[in-house]
């Protein structure tokens, strides 16, 4: 994984994709992301080669395998092996190879979409304007090796006319984007010492949502105060741990209402609610509708 020990550099260009985005946005993108592959190419250039970005209406990932050169947006960016450039749609760029060591670039061109879920299972698909990635990513040595192998697999295995190849390549691209987005989310310089602790507690909530968890007991388990636990979630997730746990339980309960025949009592127990009454009350507060309405809708869909 790229999350640990990855170093990320932000190019000083007004054309760069936005940074400073938080964990919730990254997870939202990953959960609802659809990938359409346009082109994957292992580009081998020659000394003094130059070109401009031709396909500006797509998302592009350029992995630098070999050589040296310069990319120019509003600023000039020296290019060397082990760099990754993310080009959002609409970003213009000039490219030049050096005289002694021409560039070799793995180019991946994608259209990306987000699916907006709906209670009736008829989500809306919309183009994703930009990924929460910086323009320039420079991973550490070990992570760079992993990235290089992954880009090599993607370029070597992609066959445009093959359905099987398309599916396998998409799975590799999901892996790639997940690692890049998670690394970017974890690499902000303002992450304090409590960030790793926050991630551990957050993961604990996500895995043990069905248990009768209490914030005080959770704080004791991690050797911190309840107030510090709340401050960690406010700092990094912008909501309390209680609210986050409620949202997790709500999402699990909604799926059980839609796709199982479990009773409300059984769903309440499966999702960590003390009883059916508290389940129904909490569900309506979060979703605006009682669980019986979701169950009725599920019955209507057959």
Question: Based on helices, strands and strand pairing, what is the structural class?
Answer: alpha+beta
Helix content: 40-55%
The CATH superfamily of the largest domain turns out to be Regulatory protein AraC
- Per the CATH scheme, the topology name of the largest domain is Jelly Rolls
Q: Could you characterize what this model shows?
A:
The protein has 10 helices and 10 strands. The protein is of the alpha+beta class. Strands 1, 3, 6, 8, 9 and 10 form a 6-stranded antiparallel beta sheet that branches. Strand 8 and strand 9 form a beta hairpin. The protein is elongated. The two termini are 42 Å apart. This is Helix-turn-helix transcriptional regulator.
